[in-house]
Every structure is written in C-alpha cells, then in structure tokens.
Amino acid sequence: MSTTDPCELPADRERGSNFGWSLGMVLRRWHEYVEEALKDLPHGSRGYHILAVVVHEDVPTQAALASRLVIDRSVLTYVIDDLENAGLIERQLDPRDRRARRIVATERGRETLADAEKRVAHAEDHVLAGLPEKQRATFRDFAERAAEAIHTAGPGTDPCAAVTDVLRPEDQPAR
Fold first, then answer.
1. Domains of the chain, first to last
2. Count of CB atoms within 10 A of residue 103's CB?
3. Which of 49, 17, 47, 45 is closest to 33 using CA atoms?
4. Model confidence pLDDT, tens digit, residues 126-144
5. I need a labelling partner for 69 at 20 to 30 A (CA). Which of 57, 105, 137, 152 fits?
6. What phi and psi values does residue 117 have, to the nearest 5 degrees?
7. What 3-state class would DSSP assign to 41?
C-alpha cells in the first residue's frame, strides 16, 4: 500500500468490493429498524439525533446544531417545534448572546432519550447480528471516528486523508 495515497486499496484487497453498497445496506437496515423503534418520538431518528446532541454535547445555538447534524436550518426549526411541543426540549435565551436561543432538553426529554438509546442499541444489535459482539463494537467505533473526521475536516477536505489521520495508531506521527 502506498503511503502517498490514503485511499489506495491494499494489495490483498479484492477489486470489485462495493463499499458504497455495503454502507447503503447497513444504513437502510439501520433506518428501518430504528424508525420502527422510535415511531413514538417526533420525527423518529431525526428527532432522536437532535435530542441526543442536545443532551450529550454542548452545541451553543440552533445554527450550530444544524451544522453539527448537517440539517437545513429551516427543516431543523420544524423538528425543534415538534420536540418542544412534545415537552422534550425548550428554547432558552442564551445568557451570553440574548439574540440567540439555546436548545435545552427537559427532564422528560432526558428520560425519553435514555429509553430511546436502549431501543436504538437493540435495533443496532439486530442490524449487526451477523457480526460477533467485539466486531460490532469495532465497526461502531470506526464508523463514528470516520464520520467525525469527515465532519470536522469540512467541505473540500480529502475524506480519505481525514479518516486515515484519525485511524492512525497513536505512536505514528501525522503526515
């Protein structure tokens, strides 16, 4: 494998592998099972992702939330309205910038998310049932790390290089 091209296939990897098809199949099946598991949550998996970011991450504004989740801000407004109407989140004035609104989970929202996370984990285990438990954890970890690297790198950055940097062993220097 060349050290100059992070996307070059290893010599022992069979040509004709269809990575996109593989990801698509996993995502489609994930979406089917998770949407069913979250059918009582406003906007299903999209509402779940919003609630999870609001609870687990420090996203300062609605615009930052849209950017984090790569959701159009106008679409995000409708989902937030429905989550707020369900009593799961609330908009609060940002004490640092009174023009901005922070999205904050209510106690009910935190409880709902905890329950939803269990249902999503069960659905994910079902989707990845063909893999041994340790490989499921590895798959989830690599997928999350790759997604974070691509998201953090932003548009115009070579996603292969971003992922390669994240997955590099800790004792190896960055390129």
1. 26-127 (1.10.10.10), 132-168 (no CATH)
2. 23
3. 45
4. 999 999 999 999 999 999 9
5. 137
6. -60, -35
7. coil
